[in-house]
Design a protein that fits this description.
The complex is a heterodimer of chains A (115) and B (107). Chain A is mostly beta strands. Chain A has no helices and twelve strands. In chain A, β6 and β7 form a beta hairpin. Chain A starts with a strand and ends with a strand. The mean pLDDT of chain A is 92. Chain B is an all-beta fold and 107 residues long. The model of chain B has no long low-confidence stretch (mean pLDDT 94). Chain B is globular and about 40 Å long. The N and C termini of chain B lie far apart (37 Å). The relative contact order of chain B is 0.34. Helices cover 0% and strands 57% of the residues of chain B. In chain B, β6 and β7 form a beta hairpin. Classes of the chains: A mainly beta (115), B mainly beta (107). At the A-B interface, β6 of A face β4, β5 and β10 of B.
Amino acid sequence: DVKVTQSSRYLVKRTGEKVFLECVQDMDHENMFWYRQDPGLGLRLIYFSYDVKMKEKGDIPEGYSVSREKKERFSLILESASTNQTSMYLCASSYGTAATNEKLFFGSGTQLSVL
Amino acid sequence: RKEVEQDPGPFNVPEGATVAFNCTYSNSASQSFFWYRQDCRKEPKLLMSVYSSGNEDGRFTAQLNRASQYISLLIRDSKLSDSATYLCVVKHQKVTFGIGTKLQVIP
C-alpha cells in the first residue's frame, strides 16, 4: 500500500515563527502536492511538484514556500506564520506525468494552530 | 463562478434509502472526474473515477453529463458506514476539489 507520511498530526506555533511541514511518500511517485482544508472552503492547492527540485504555485501560494530536494520528500514552509494560516494541511502524491496524474494518495494531515 | 460546485448538505437519510449528489463544473475542457470520500477527521480517499459512459461499483453509480457539465453519484441501499463527506474532483491541467457534500445515514 502507498504510504504518505506527514511528520506531525497536531502542531501549535506562535505568530511570526517559521514552520516546516514535512511529507514523505514511499511509492516513488513523481507528483506531490500540498493542500489546506478549511470549513466551507474545501481543499485548496498551495503548491505542487512534478519532479525533484521543481515546484509550481497552486491557487493560494502566498505566505508559503516549498522544497523538494529528494523525490520522496516534499516540505511546506511558512516563513512567518500568521493566524490566518491556522488550518488542516494535507500532503498528497500521485504517479504519472503532469498530464496524467490521477489518483491522489493523501497523508493523514497536520492540524496547525497559529496563536 | 466556482470551478467545482457542490451542495454542502448535510443530507440526512435513513438506512436503506437511495441518495444522489450532483456536482457542477465550470470548465468545459475538463478531462477527468472523480469522487473521493472523506471520513470525519481523516484524509480523502478515492471512491471512484467517473467515465463518460457512466460506471458502477457495487451500490455506487457515477455518471457524467458533459453537455450540462455535471457529474453525479448515486448510492443505493445506504449503510450507516456510508456516512462521510463526498468530494467531487475535476481535473483540467490541475486537480480541483469541490467543498464536499456531507452524508449522514440514520438508523
